Structures are given as C-alpha cells and as structure tokens.
Amino acid sequence: MFDASLPSENMQRAKGCAEVGFGARGLKHLYQSGCSKALLPKNFQPTPEAVFINTSGGATGGDRLNYSAWVKDGARLDVTTQAAERIYRATTGEAVITNTLTLGENCQMDWVPQETILFENSALKRQLNVTMAESASLLALETLVLGRKAMGEILHSASLSDQWRIRRGDRLIYADALRFNAPDVQTQSTATLNGNRALATIVIVAPDAEDRLQFARSLLPFPDVEAAASAWSGILTLRFLAPDAQPLRNALISFLTQFRGRDLPRVWHM
After folding, report:
1. pLDDT of residue 157
2. Domain map of the chain by residue range?
3. pTM higher than 0.85, yes or no?
C-alpha cells in the first residue's frame, strides 16, 4: 500500500574490461568483456591507434570499468576513447574506472582519452596507474568537465577521487590526486577552480621531457583558457583551466597536435 515500505531493487550494474598490447610488429594482445570494447582503426600512420569504448553510454554508482594498454619491444601506440565519458547521477555507491598503462624499453605511448563529464549528484573514483621503463616515453592526458553548460546545469553536489601514479623503473616518480566529496562543490575560489568548470592535466615523462619545456610554453596561451607548464626530474606537466568544455577542447587539440607533431586520433574530430 505504501511505496516507501517496499524494499529497493538492486539495479543492474555495468562491468567491463578491455585490454590491448602491441609489440614491434603490431598487435600482440586483445581482450574485451562486458560493456568495455577496444577498436583498432586503420590510420595509415607510423603509430597505431587503440580506441576504448564503453557501450553502456556512461557510468553510474556501482559500475566497474577497467582499461589496460601495454607496449614492448620499442613499439609505439596512441590510446584514446570513442567519446566523452559521462558520469551520471548515482543513487548508491560510485563508478570506478581503472586505467593501467605499461611501457617497455624504448617504447612510446600517448594516452589521450576524451573528456569525462560529471553530472549533478554523480560519484566517480578514477585511477591512472603507469609502469614504464627508464628509456620509455609517455604522454598522458586527463580532462574533467563539471556539469553540462548546454543543459544549464551547475554542479552543486558530486563526489570525485581522481588519482595518478606513475612508476619509472622501480621508483614512484609522479603522484597526483584530485578529490572532493561535498554537497556544495567549491569552484569559485582562486585556490580551487576560480569559477572555471573544465580542467585538464597533461604529464609527459621522457628522457627529453625537461628539454621540451620552452617549446611547450611557446604554444601557450589560448583564448578563454588559462594554462601553465613546469618541468623537473624528467617530467613535464601542464595544467589547463577553462569556463567550459569547448574552449578547453579546442586548446587541447591545438596544443597536442603541435606538441606531438601529428594529428590526434580521428575520433577526436568526429
């Protein structure tokens, strides 16, 4: 008689795992299960591409998604996602997305997924774990958008735990964490986002990373985007802040195309 007295149903949760591995002669490993898939488009370029897909169309509380890519024997690989990852309102729990990258000797990998969009009342725990050889080169990007401007949505309540861990040889060389968990997401303070709602981090780890700092800075700034670069101990990092997703996306496409010396994967332009 009273709906409130009825036990709540356990909603079906999405689970997925996709893995790719490349060697000097091309694809060595491909595995996919659940809602996570991997596509290997032909690009007629020296560097092959892998595109990860979440066929469920987004993630919400209780979903578990795992993506993994590795390269060995001097291989190169660009890894991206088919579209922006949407993190929907969570009724219980959090969406967990774990990305694992492994780079062997003299290998190069560019991890350039498209943006992640947090919806109101969403909850996300995301991890990027990298293990790389001393002679390997990594470029890693993560982009976060708070709310949907086109829908008039201003993010007031959300939960995020976003963690980076990069190990080079047997040493942890880079650790970063972004976390908030509050009914009122603070974005106005100059100590946080200064009123911006889109942010991105790029980390380059390579034998020549520090030498490329001045070149990276020469590509900045961009219209409506705040950006800065710094380098130390074989690591080059850049931070970007923008009032919305589109100016940030435009800046990232411009910067990455010039810095890498080649176009981003085609899905970025669809």
Report:
1. 83
2. 14-260
3. yes
